[in-house]
Structure formats: C-alpha cells, structure tokens
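fyi for ur records
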Amino acid sequence: MKHLFPFLFLLCLVIGACDSYDDFTTDPSSVLSFSASTVAFDTVITAEGSSTRTLLVHNKGGKGLRILSVEFEKGSESPFRANVDGWFLEDGRGTDFEVRTQDSIFVRLECTLPDTDKDETTTYEDRLLFHLESGVTQSVSVTAIGMDVYRWTDVTLTEDQTLEAKRPILVEGSLTVSEDVTFTIKAGTRIFFRDNGSLVVRGTLHIEGEEGKPVVLRGDRTDRLLWYMPYDNMPDRWNGVVLADGSKDHKIEWMDLHSSRWGIRAENTDLTMESSKLHNMSGDDAETSCGMFLKNCDFTANNVCISNAMGHGLYLLGGKASLTHCTMAQYLLIGSGSKGMALFLANKEGDTDYYIDSYTFSRCLVMGYGDDVI
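which gave:
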C-alpha cells in the first residue's frame, strides 16, 4: 500500500498538468503577443509574388486562448495572403484557431501587388485582425511598396535606340545589340536582369550616367536572403555584359554594375570607361567570373573601381590599357576555393600568344587579402 501513494501523487500531478494545458480563458486581460507589430515587405515588383514573411503569435499567459477568426481588414480585396497555423485564409479570412498556454503559432505572409502602370512606387497597407473568444480584437499591420517595371523578354535591337526610363527595365533572357547598332542608356536608368539574363553587344554601347544618377545594371531580386543581407548585395544574380568580337566604340560613364557572374567580357574592341564601378562577381568557376576580362582590347579608364570577383578583378590579356585613378580590390568572401588576383596581366592563353602594346597604371590602388594581389 505504501508504494501506491507515490504513484497516486504523480498521477495527480500529471492530471493537474493536463487540466492546466487544456484550460482556456475568456478573460479580456489575457491577450496574444506578436513577434512584430508590423510585417513590412521590401520593395516588390508588381504582378509578381513576393518572398514569404513570418509572424510568430505567442500566448504567454497561464491558460489557452481561442481565436474565433483571423482576417485581413480589407478581406478578399487585400493584396496580401496569409497562412495561419498551416491553414490558408480563403478570401482573406479563417476561423477557429487555438494557442495553448506558453505556446505559439506561425503566420506566413506573402503578397502580389497590382501593376498600376506608374513610374512612382505605390505603398500598400492592411491589418491582420485576430478576434479572440473574449471579444478582444488585436491587429498587426502589413505593408509593402510596389514598383512597376517595363518587361523585356529576349529583345534584340536592330536599329539605334536611346533608353531613358524612370521605372526599371526587367530583362528576361538576353538583351542583344546587333552589329552596326548603337544602344545608348541615359542617366538614372535601371536594368534588372533575371537569373540567366545578359547584355550582349555586337554593335556599340554608350552608357551616359551622371553623378548622383548612375546607370544601374543588377539582378532582379529586391528581397533579402537574411534580414541583414539583401540579395542585391550578393553575386551570381545574373550573367553580365559581353562586348563581342567586332563590336566597337564603347563608352561608359557613371555605371554601377553589380551582383553578377561576371562584370564585362570584351574581345578585340575598344572601351573607354569613366567614373564607374563593378562589384561582387561570382559564378561557377573563377576563370569565367572576372570583374573585367579584356582580350586584345584598347581600354582607357579613369576613376573606375573593380572589386570582389571570384575570378580576377581586372584580367588584361594582350592589347593596350591605360588606367588613371582606378581601384582594383579583391575582398570577396562568398564562394569556395581559391580566388583570383585583383589585377592579372597576361600575354598568352593556352598555346595562343597575345601582343601587349602597353599597360599604364597612374595613381591606381591594387589591394586585397593576399600577400600579393598582382
């Protein structure tokens, strides 16, 4: 009999614990707490689904709470979507949820913003309402900024064109400039490339950015990999620029090219570059992931920065180059294996020799993690 009392004591504790866990309250003072008062999306390209945001809903009280319904204030008209504790809110509303004592549920949120055909961005706001069994209603704000774009898919320019756009150009596939065609990009223009997007120039490229209004060439991801890491700061988001053999008379001023697999590849052409930067290039291998790879080119640069490439920063193979007030820096952290040099000069590729006319570097900085980066 004496062995029965400890068993009964433990049984009472278990039953008491179960009763407490299964107990719910309608006390208006018992409310939910949230991991954030506002769920804010990064700038979202309109008519395309956003990345997912997560909201944690906590019950820190001593008894469970029943949620009669969760709904968007704007109902089915809301541009936002939510999945609450594994259940999608049809038409922006769902019913009968529970949060046990000292427990939490997940809310996953997404949005698809309408295309408004405007050059300016548009702000969207709504509230996610939690109606408790006690009669208390709590809310979390949800916001997003919509950005309209012009969409180009595998475009080939067959006549001279000047591009000046207040909203971004979103390129799917390649943007190709045909032979004997001049493509001029004016100050402030932004071109976003999809994953395998490229700018291929067989004619002539003129980039005419200005101080404070650069021409931006970048990937299309506007969200974040981590809260502190925008995709726009990461390499390998799109391919890069190719100045093809036989193209000519390229002039680039105030360009910002970043987050690509390579920066600029050019062969047997001439290029003048002023006040521009190429940053964060990383692809499948170091040989093809250079900031600039110029084969047998005539290259003149002033106030240009080439930084962080998985391959070489500036790779000159034969030809002629004159650089003044330029920076070549190699501090790339992302990617595995050995990285290239900040500056790499060569007169031979495989069994092929390339004649070097002259290389001149005046008041330039060459730096990186290595003991020797040239």
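The longest strand covers residues 270-281. thats all i got for now
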